[in-house]
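S.,

Sequence below, as promised.
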Amino acid sequence: IQTGQSLRCLFVIILCYCNSSHPEHLWETWRHKICDDLRRQLSHIPHYQDRQFEDHQIYDYSLYLLNKILMEFGDDLTKHPNMPLPNSPNDNSCQWLDLANNPILASQLEYDPQELQNRVDRSYQQFNHEQKAVYDAVMRSINSGNSRMFFIHSAGGCGKTYLCNTIAAAVRAQGHIALCVASSGIAALLLEGGRTAHSCFKIPIPAHEDSVAGITC
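The prediction came back faster than expected:
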């Protein structure tokens, strides 16, 4: 018995190497088998657990996965006339996230936005003048899309970690990604969802002049 994943790989091989004259017919005939594992797969991804997917959405997700595999071979579905394409990110439909193979992204989307926003509102009321000024400046930069770098410096015990956790919560409450990293494990433990920079970005140890981080898109 072939699994959906195996059939998707086989379908990609057919597209890449077999010069099928009508791959869309193969897709229409066998798509229910090619997609037979995807509904279960999506149910195990926290971001999609509460969603009920219709068949056409499952087929669209399969096309998204097929296209990702094709791109690894320097190909894509647009090069195969008459093959349906996955919905573009601009469509008012599912914007598929490759969460199954990206645990960092999956963990970022497990947060409850409303709970985070409530926490942000409470924390903001407790900020002192300096903390509010920093928070407002950072959020203005984020909301305007004007990228900036901020350096927060003060003596120990002045609330820098509390401020950073609140900013991260505000970003996540908006549905965005906030990666909290620190140079040491002890410091990372104080950040919500925190990790060491070496762990998160796969920075090699030791780092040499020609070393590169193992970050992939």
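The first strand starts at residue 181 and ends at 182.

Coffee later?
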